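Sequence in, structure out. Go.
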Amino acid sequence: MKMTWKNLLIMCGVLIAIVISLGYLAFPHSIRQATTTPTDDCSQFIIAQEKAINSDPLVNTETFDKYPVASVLQTTPANLDTNSNAFAHEFRSALKDQLSKAGVNFAGHYSIVDVGMTGWGAGYYIVDRNNGKAYTFPYEATFLDFREDSNLILMNSKQDILNFIQQSTSPSDPCMSTGTIGVYYTDARPFYLLWQDNKLQVLGSGSSTPPVNPFWTEFK
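Output:
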């Protein structure tokens, strides 16, 4: 058979494929699986998180229904008071846009909205739609749940964490960054926060303090 450049290229391609296959088979199984299984450190972080949420003593006692609101706003929600908060003034355009979409969604007459920034993650605001005054949500939340008819905020609830783990496409997904520099999904722990007199109270005797969102003090 006459050897042509085309035939030579085909033979080289076949030889390269054979070499790669033999090399793959020669590697230990654990190395070949490295892209589909979490690292040892990641596994430990996941185990620690699951242990924490499974031993959460408040998951069945601190519920939305336990902290109902007295009434729900019946009038047109007030516009943002841009002078009520320095951040509200700085990010007024984005805040107004989010408020127009959210409506009243928390504690009868408040709106909780997120105006995040790249690298900083979520930045939540609680806005009183009776008068437009804005309050910054001080904590660094990976997940946040709230209802229009309740004064309770669930931060990083057990269900949200488990849903994220179950919906992950890779075993190492829970060890990914949340979008905030230095913060990972495995860092999330449940906290129960009660909104009263325009202030947040951390529920649970002896509960640790939720991680503070550094954006409010470090952003310039």
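Check: The first strand starts at residue 110 and ends at 114. Residues 111 and 179 are 23 Å apart (CA to CA).
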